[in-house]
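Board notes (copied after class):
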Amino acid sequence: MAHSEENFKHMQIGELQQVLADNTHVVVDIRDPASFQAGHIPNALHLSNESLPEFLRTADFDAPVVVCCYHGISSQQAAQFLISQDFTDVYSLDGGFTDWQLQYPDTVAR
């Protein structure tokens, strides 16, 4: 049987909020450094071209990874890239950090 092309999945803001407390999901934020510094989802890792090699070297490829960008557009390409790097459980955060900040302003980490 041919192996089908794996694809990332989508996650809603509320779903992420529910699983954050469990520390089961790795959240990676691909926005620019200044935006990340200004505020991000709690425990999110800033993922950039500079930090990517280290992330790939140390990551648990079977852990669920949630990719966050500004609005949930760029994160889709990044999520598909992680799938291509053999991550098995990858999500693009629909609405991105913009929606997170609107729904959970009290949780934004700095």
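Comment from the instructor: The chain has a mean pLDDT of 94. The helical segments are 13-20, 33-38, 52-58, 74-84, 96-103.
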